Amino acid sequence: MPHMTTALITGANRGLGRHFAAELLARGATVYAGAREPASIDLPGARPIALDVTDPDAVAAAAALAGDVDLLVNNAGISTGAQLLGDLEGVRAEMDVNFWGTLSMVRAFAPVLAANGGGKVVNVASALSWFAAPGAGAYAVSKAANWNMSNALRLELAGQGTQVTSVHLGLADTDMATAIQGPKTDPAVVARLTLDAVEAGDLEVVVDDWSAMVKASLAEDPRTFYDRFLTL
Ligand SMILES: NC(=O)c1ccc[n+]([C@@H]2O[C@H](COP(=O)([O-])OP(=O)(O)OC[C@H]3O[C@@H](n4cnc5c(N)ncnc54)[C@H](OP(=O)(O)O)[C@@H]3O)[C@@H](O)[C@H]2O)c1
After folding, report:
1. N or C: less crowded end of the chain, CB within 10 Å?
2. What is the pLDDT along the chain (232 residues), one digit of tens a residue?
3. Which of 155, 148, 96 minimizes the C-alpha distance to 126?
4. Listed residue (37, 136, 36) closest to 80, CA to CA
5. 143 is catalytic
6. Where do the domains of the chain lie, and which CATH numbers do they carry?
């Protein structure tokens, strides 16, 4: 990352977001660490900022406070296990954070990024942008929306020179994945790979083999992929 980078990371108090913040600090960036509870930010050198991405007033206040940002990392996310045919409030909650919260941040920070030379947006999506798994219906839909939002925003922000990068991973070793079995990527590695890719100008980061396999499967008959779940 160029040493002049000034970044804001949402959900920077724990998990992947904390690793983004730590890696950016190590690379010499100025870091605004967004958190619903700013007192939970424990990284020396980070500037805590109160930020619930579902609160429009908090988002606007963050954009007013952090007017020097040229890298926005939309990392905050929830995974509740809500099913599309279950409690609708759960489905809406996933969309509120993973889709609407991310869009709200980009809308608020687009003028800030423009004023700072165009800048960069990183949206943390998922391998689940490209498939649905049992028990993760609402999350998968929200992350599919997040992915194509990045594509659309890339077009809408091209005129002001803002680079938009979408990040896709299977499992990372954070609180979100505690209850899920399977190989998990070190979140420090996710942060490092992502920031290297963003610096290189990449528009998409496919972090692991699982994400690459899922993406490739989109070119196949869906039955080839979904038979593994349908026959359970
Ligand atoms: N871990 C995985 O296996 C995995 C895989 C694919 C994609 N991802 C994505 O990676 C990103 C980071 O997830 P993680 O694994 O680090 O999860 P995590 O450990 O559960 O952390 C989630 C972070 O998001 C914050 N957050 C939740 N709702 C928020 C809101 N309304 N406003 C602001 N911040 C909010 C949390 O803050 P609080 O502490 O206040 O709750 C926390 O800092 C998410 O977008 C997730 O969907 C994770």
Report:
1. C
2. 655 799 999 999 999 999 999 999 999 999 999 999 999 999 999 999 999 999 999 999 999 999 999 999 999 999 999 999 999 999 999 999 999 999 999 999 999 999 999 999 999 999 999 999 999 999 999 999 999 999 999 999 999 999 999 999 999 999 999 999 999 999 999 999 999 999 999 999 999 999 999 999 999 999 999 998 877 5
3. 148
4. 136
5. yes
6. 6-230 (3.40.50.720)
